[in-house]
Design a protein that fits this description.
The protein is mostly helical. The chain is globular and about 75 Å long. 75% of the residues lie in helices and 3% in strands. Strand 1 and strand 2 form a beta hairpin. The protein has a two-stranded antiparallel sheet with strand order 1-2.
């Protein structure tokens, strides 16, 4: 393909943001900004779907490679995708127009600037998944902090400044060591080209410290226990669209980083640190599920559930089995849809009642039947009911975990039981029972835009639950190649020691 489709998908949202910046908006409506941002994001989604359709699932390696010298040949703007990264690009392009539509009613001030921040953030997120140069990856990875910091700090809740700075400092400090590691990789290999680093192979003696440096960034971004404390605050204070992007995309950048760098570049170190990852993952799954049971704020409950679900992701990645890794990738895509939908469901109620507290609701099933239906689908998907996308990812991860460690798999299974407990309890208290107050009788069910968004997400959750092969076939070849490279590196290291 001669057309630079990856550069187009990456830069189009930023170009749209530039047009919005210089557009004239109608007074109090910002109609031009809404139309431009929605048009830009939909065009980008169409390009992303076309890219997925054009992707060769049987090809080993990176496709659609674009390369351009930047700093005297030292750093290159090199883009390319494989079966893993293409799915995250499509997910990002799909979630962005949903955020734009959802924010029209919820964002009351500076809507034009908010839409610009969303589009700029989309460019940075897609850039992360396209980058084949370590420095370019780091730039996109860290640049995404800026618009997200502004989204939380300007359009968030009462404690938005505290939450924004906590989010920014946690994620930035964790990534400083990754920058040092990237410089070290250049010193060791003479290049920052990811494909060349894969071929050169970093010496084992350097892998352990470099793995820890990258881990410091990805663990915070994921987030893993015990560096997860910024996430509940960020979710609670962020506007609905900010929470959707944070849960659906930003957390997945760390999982993608583990796959691309921790395993791809440091396979021997990854093998060595398996006990650490398993321990932190199990603690995250069980501990944060128990914490979720104690929450009275719907957003905070869903935030803690995200930490537990990301525990399944890290567990699956470091099983180094086809089922475990494919399950973790599927879990990230599924969680991106389900968590986005759950935060949107909270936003629907908050826009009407202006409360996220669970005890403010109850008995709304007869008043909001459509809302209760879609909320039920997402709740069941979150607890991993067979027939939903949440089940496929979790069962594959557990199959991979059983192959690696029976005890770890049993402990992880406890998280599924706890997940069912806090999600069912949330649904019971919000949807069923007696009306919490008479004001709830005046609530209106889903409007047209809310219905389109939520029923579309519900359809995808059910579709991928019954037909997961659309995702699994896309990632299978790339996962097999990743495991093959890992096995070769481990075997070579063992032979060298002997």
């Amino acid at each position: 393909m001669n057309f630079p489709i990856l550069s187009s998908i990456t830069l189009l949202p930023a170009l749209g943001a530039l047009f919005i910046l210089f557009s004239k908006s109608e007074k109090n409506k910002n109609r031009n900004a809404i139309n431009l941002s929605l048009f830009t994001s939909i065009v980008n989604l169409i390009l992303a779907i076309f890219l997925w359709h054009s992707f060769d699932k049987s090809f080993v390696g990176f496709q659609f490679i674009e390369e351009q010298n930047w700093i005297s040949g030292f750093i290159k703007f090199k883009f390319g995708i494989d079966g893993i990264s293409i799915l995250f690009i499509v997910l990002t392009a799909f979630i962005t127009p949903i955020c734009i539509v959802s924010c029209v009613n919820s964002v009351k001030t500076r809507l034009k600037e908010f839409l610009i921040a969303i589009l700029i953030l989309e460019t940075f997120m897609i850039g992360v998944f396209c980058s084949l140069d370590l420095v370019v990856f780091y730039i996109f990875f860290e640049a995404g902090l800026i618009p997200m910091f502004l989204i939380i700090g300007i359009w968030g809740g009462p404690k938005r400044v505290y939450a924004a700075f906590k989010f920014f400092l946690f994620t930035l400090l964790g990534s400083v060591l990754m920058l040092v590691a990237i410089i070290s990789i250049y010193w060791i290999t003479g290049t920052t080209d990811i494909t060349q680093v894969f071929e050169i192979k970093i010496p084992v003696k350097h892998q352990y410290i470099l793995w820890l440096a990258f881990f410091s960034s990805f663990a915070v971004k994921m987030p893993m226990w015990p560096v997860h404390t910024w996430l509940p605050d960020a979710h609670v204070e962020a506007p609905t669209a900010g929470s959707v992007i944070l849960a659906a995309i930003l957390l997945k950048m760390a999982g993608y980083g583990f796959l691309r760098f921790s395993i791809g570049m440091f396979p021997v170190a990854s093998e060595y640190f398996i006990p650490l990852i398993f321990t932190l993952s199990i603690i995250a799954i069980i501990y944060t599920s128990l914490v979720a049971l104690m929450q009275e704020d719907m957003k905070k409950l869903i935030a803690y559930s995200s930490v537990a679900h990301m525990g399944f992701v890290t567990l699956g990645i470091f099983t180094f089995t086809p089922q475990g890794i494919e399950g973790s990738i599927f879990q990230m895509i599924s969680h991106g849809l389900i968590s986005a939908a759950l935060f949107l469901c909270v936003g629907v109620l908050y826009d009407r009642v202006h409360s996220r507290l669970i005890n403010s609701y109850g008995g709304i099933v007869n008043i909001l039947p459509k809302y209760s239906l879609v909320f039920a689908i997402f709740m069941l998907g979150a607890l991993g009911l067979p027939g939903t996308s949440g089940f496929v990812g979790e069962i594959l991860v557990l199959i991979g975990a059983f192959q690696k460690s029976f005890l770890v798999a049993i402990l992880a299974s406890i998280g599924i039981i706890l997940g069912a407990a806090y999600m069912l309890w949330l649904y019971k208290r919000v949807i069923f029972g007696k009306l919490a107050n008479n004001e709830l009788e005046e609530l209106k069910d889903l409007n047209f835009s809310e219905g389109i968004i939520l029923f579309s997400l519900a359809g995808l959750v059910l579709f991928f639950g019954f037909y997961p092969n659309l995702i699994l076939d896309t990632i299978h070849t790339s996962v097999e190649e990743l495991i093959r490279s890992y096995d070769q590196a481990i075997t070579f290291n063992l032979n060298t020691i002997k």
